[in-house]
Amino acid sequence: MRHGFVATEEPNPHTRRGRELLRRHPEIRRLFKPHPASAAYIVALVALQVAVAYLLRDAGWLWVLLAAYVVGAFASHALFVLIHDASHNLILTGTLRNRLLGMLCNVGQGIPSAMSFRTYHLLHHSHLDEYDFDADLAYDWEARLVGNSPFRKAVWLLFFAAIEIVRPLRIHRKLADNWVVGNVVAIVAVDVLIWQWCGVPGFAYILLSTFFGVGLHPLGARWIQEHYTFVPGQETYSYYGILNHLTLNIGYHNEHHDLVRVPWVHLPKVKALAPEFYDDLYAHRSLTRVLLQWIFDRNLHLYTRITRDRDVAVPVKRDLPAAAA
Q: How many structural domains compose the chain?
């Protein structure tokens, strides 16, 4: 068969759990509102990125790399989380303002991704783990190429930022609209200004921050943590470790999928108010452990995912190995 993902005939688990959660805890609906303070976080993080880039304008490459890995990766990753909330209109009221805030985030990242992410992330929610609609799933050729080799998995994660640009080409949806084009034009123009003002080292810092923030870094392990199968039958995984303080609670991934109208700042409250829905689910406690397990555990690979796209997935009885809990 063409694809090697583990198939399920079960519907999206988050639809059912979210509905039941609200039935038992209607008070959670009070959390369904934008969080305007996120706009201030965006301005502060973009200002931080540009300021550090300016300070590095005459720096050597070792300092640029170190700053990007230790400082920039966290700032860029936090901006990704804020793009994520903007995609769900959870920062300010109204789609237009959230779109513009998402594009502002890209100023601190150097990559014009906010508008395309908005399109494909919303598809990820509505068509979770369906091969033809969810860009979070690897290409079949991509999964076969990477295999379970520790070296190839490490290289794959190192270049994940580039892979995320290619993945949407598979999706059966219009690839560009005026917002995507405008996003590209605006950020390329800003990139030129940063290049002129901060020099090559400063501009490289901005790009490397994004490269590390989604790549071979404990923060990059978040893309493994969210939907790769660590317990047979469980499709989504939360992370409850200390890095949530720096990644704006993006680790609360089951909670987010269950209730997409809750902004990042309130996701821990969902778990606290409804522990019976989450305490029995397997959750990660360390992204560093996830990163190392992903690289060195040969039972983990790009096919270690559940899919409900029946015409492209193989049956569960194929017995693909899944990682131990």
A: 1
Instruction: State the pTM of this model.
Output: 0.91
- Per-residue pLDDT tens over the stretch 296-307: 999 999 999 999
Question: What b-and-e string marks burial along 48-77, b requiring 16 or more CB atoms within 10 Å of the CB?
Answer: bbbebbeebeebeeeebbebbbeebbbbbb
Task: Summarize the chain as % helix, strand, coil (round to 5).
Answer: 60, 5, 35
Task: Compute the CA torsion angle 192, 196, 197, 198 (nearest 10 deg).
Answer: 90
pLDDT over 90 (residue 319): no
pLDDT digits (tens, 9 = 90+) for 164-182: 888 888 887 666 689 999 9
Residue 323: inside a domain, yes or no? no
Instruction: Kindly state whether residue 325 falls inside one of the protein's structural domains.
Output: no
DSSP letters for 189-213: HHHHHHHHHHHHHHHHHHHHHHHHH
Strand partners, 239: 284
Write out the residue range of the structural domain in which residue 57 sits.
6-318
Strand, coil or helix: 283: strand
Residue 32 three-state SS: coil
Closest CA to 264 of 126, 73, 77: 77
Pairing of the two strands 283-284 and 306-307: unpaired
Mean per-residue pLDDT over the chain, rounded: 91
**Pair 304, 229: CB distance under 8 Å:** yes
